[in-house]
Design a protein that fits this description.
Number of helices: 11
Radius of gyration: 29 Å
Strand order of the largest sheet: 1-2-3-4
Helix content: 40-55%
Strand content: 5-15%
Family: Belongs to the nucleosome assembly protein (NAP) family.
Pfam families: NAP
Structural class: alpha+beta
Organism: Chaetomium strumarium
Order of helices and strands: HHHHEHEEEHHHHHH
Protein name: Nucleosome assembly protein
InterPro entries: NAP-like_sf, NAP_family
Amino acid sequence: MAATLEETNVSYEELADLEHEFDEVETEIIRQQYSLSKPLYARRAELVSKIPNFWPLVLEQAPMDIDEYIQPSDSALLLSALKSISVSRFELDEDEKKGDPRSVAIRFEFAENEHFEDTVLEKKFWWRMGKDGFAGLVSEPVEIKWKKGKDLTDGLLGLVKAVFDEQRAKPKQETKGKKEKVELTEKQKALKEKIDQTGMGGVSFFAFFGYVGEWVSAEESRQALEEEKEERRKRKAGEKVEKKQDEDVEMDDDDELDDDDEDDDDLEIFPAGDVVAMAIADDLWPGALKYFIQAQEQDSMSDLEFESDDEDEDEDDDEEGNDGRPHKKQKGCKDGCKH
């Protein structure tokens, strides 16, 4: 039987600290890669701008993490009006040394279309760490100027924007120990009711622009990162690290915290927003040429199959009479003549 970690002189904290160092290396790789590949992406943008429907064709070959959220109505709009997609590590553009490479901005450019007035939709995702232990991407709802009766999200995006603005107007309350149940506001109730009526399976891809995630401010994230860094320094130096108060919460309270997290998720109109963002930034965007070539090869295969079907039909026609019916098999006499 394998020994448990408690039976060794290795602590969970040591493993977590080592894992964090691996994360730091990966983050630094992203920083360097972004700087080195920037001129290449600029060249690619110039080339693909000369190829009609480049990005719609790329999106047709999108990986499952993206494709599964595109409804038929979304697909029709994207294929007819999408002009380009671009991804930037905007914090690095602002400060190459101090910016976090994990923060991304995803920009969609559209031609004039029947659904909305915008020609550019850009959504930013900030990598943040919360004092409650959360670490990941957070965002803000992006408003879309829908034309009358053409809202593909059926009002969801407008509702989540209203709820977000309402929450942002209130200061975030820090919770110590047990988290109290918070009553939903009227706007939150309206949003939850709309989500329940819609069902996650029928939500438009454009609800992606309404993803929020955890609400963690830049200041809270900065403080949480500094505290974590100091704790790791102390552990490395062999100094005592005091337990945080929320680490002493009983299991029953943890269950209640999980319930509260589920309540927050109930107000998320596109729960997989961070997953889709990473799929675009780390897969679709860098692999666009690969996906375009796949689309071309798929079209070529379809053409070959179509031509093959035509040839088969021609052969069948040759075997049929002028009236379109198969020839009736005739009997021959003993001498080989036909009557």
